Amino acid sequence: PPFISHFVVGPQGPEGIYRKIHLGPPEEGIYQAGDDCPVFGTGKATLGMELCFDGHFPELSTLLALKGAEIVFLPHASPRESAAEKQGRWLRYLPARAYDNSLFLVACNQAGESESGLNFSGSALILDPKGEVLAENPQGAEGIILARLKGETLRRVRENPRGFFLPRRRPELYEGVTQGLPEKAGGKATTR
After folding, report:
1. Is 122 helix (H, G, I), strand (E, B) or coil?
2. Residue 138 lies in a domain
């Protein structure tokens, strides 16, 4: 089966390909999951990529940050809710991804109607390394949002021992996170 992929293009041209790691239920059996979490150096910043359903797994953002990502891009093609509902849901968990990992996060959702009749609500969001909203388009209209992502902001956050948490992780205590769900927690989910 094919992959769901995004190409990363920098100032000098193509940088690489990201293949979606976590397939949503409607995608299973149609597509195959990727098995790599690359970061891409563009000369200006180091980028990480997650696609849609990938964003529900906090370990992926942490892994990208540990690999040096300074900005994570998170495009969606999610037709199931209004723009306000999508934005509200994003604001419940995406600021934590940016804050916990001290990185910029840029999320967007497809807008408009697909050939098969699915209606995509749009919306877009840019967060700073403290999880604060820099720009957003919660209305769902097609459009572009812009924000200046300053390296100085990221440097200040990552140089602050009380603001940059990744160096203080204790991964030896978290190995259970990668072992799947125990039966008493709802079971049946496993790691790939």
Report:
1. coil
2. yes
* Rounded average pLDDT per 10-residue block, the chain, 192 residues: 93 92 94 96 92 94 97 90 80 95 94 84 91 87 89 95 90 80 58 51
pTM comes to 0.88
- Kindly state whether residue 192 falls inside one of the protein's structural domains: no
Q: pLDDT digits over 118-142, tens only?
A: 888 888 899 999 999 999 987 767 7
In a domain, 56, yes or no: yes
Phi, psi at residue 130, to the nearest 5°? -100, 5
Structural domain for 13, as ranges? 5-185
Alpha-carbon span 99 to 102, nearest angstrom? 5
- Read off φ and ψ for residue 49, nearest 5 degrees: -135, 140
**pLDDT tens digits, 12-34:** 889 899 999 999 999 999 999 99
Please check whether residue 126 is in contact with residue 134, taking contact to mean a CB–CB distance below 8 angstroms: yes
**Residue 54: count of CB within 10 angstroms of its CB:** 23
Query: What CATH number did the domain enclosing 112 receive?
Result: 3.60.110.10
Number of domains the chain is built from? 1
Strand stretches in 64-167, DSSP E: 71-76, 104-109, 111-113, 119-121, 124-127, 133-137
Specify if 190 maps to a domain.
no
Which amino acid belongs to residue 5? S
CA torsion 45-10-18-171 (nearest 10°) is: -10
